[in-house]
Amino acid sequence: MSAPSVPAAEPFDAVLPPEPAPAPPAWHRALFLALAAAALLPVVSPAVALGAGAILGLTLGNPFEAVSARVSKLLLKACVVGLGFGMSLPAVLAVGKDGVGVTALGIAFALSVGLLLGRLLHVEQTTGALISGGTAICGGSAIAALGPALGAGAEAMGVSLATVFLLNGVALYVFPAVGHLLDMSQHQFALWAAIAIHDTSSVVGAAASYGAEALAEATVLKLTRALWIVPLALGAALWHRKTAGGAVKVSIPWFIGLFALASAVVAVFPAGAPLYSVLVALAKQGLVLTLFLIGAGLSRATLRAVGVRPLVQGVLLWVAVGGASLAAILAWVP
User: What per-residue confidence (pLDDT) applies to 69?
Assistant: First the structure.
């Protein structure tokens, strides 16, 4: 009779909990906080803040990665609401109404071309859909809403967000330069930025670098575009539920409603103009800090995660959307 088999003992180190990552040195944390504080100075531009954050993230890393990621999301929404105090609600509705048709055409074009490119480049289906949706509507916010709706895994979400993030950084530098080179008006640039730049933060940053009028119009147009998250995410969720039995999950961008509420306050209580000016100034500088935090979130691991095919899809789609919208605006928009 053979003796019962005894399972092999696990190595001693296999049963030990993993060692926590060493805490960043004090000087590293102090440097991050000093740069973040500098981003609140009026002399620091959005492009400089984003560049400083990206250099820090790619070299030393972000010592407060998890915290700054949460803070940047909340700060962005708060600053967008603050910008609402810079426009009266009738002006917001007028700008939004004028841009509805252009926005719808831009979204349809981006989705169609993006999904086609994804198939031609053999990009994983969910990743390709997320990149297309992020480019069509509002970058990371759209991807965050579409991901659960499509049942996307962590890898697809990470690759899509990294692709959009890289192109956001490029847009913040390229768009104002191209706008000045082509002598675009404030209105033309606002329309182009709102259509062709992914995230709200980069749209606002690029428009702020171009001019006050461009900032006001681009913010409204971008938020009008962001409203399309709801029907697109709902449609994606229903499609996923039908094909894969997934649950319907839709993230609604409530901060857009708060932006409209702030604009309504301006219209109803015009006597508060001095206070509104302060709130708008704080919101603009808060966006500079937001861009620093977003830049600091970029890491070498993020770059490695993107991969060639999703990045090629994202770049080609972005060039197609940016080029087509620029040509149309220069031809038909005074």
Answer: 83
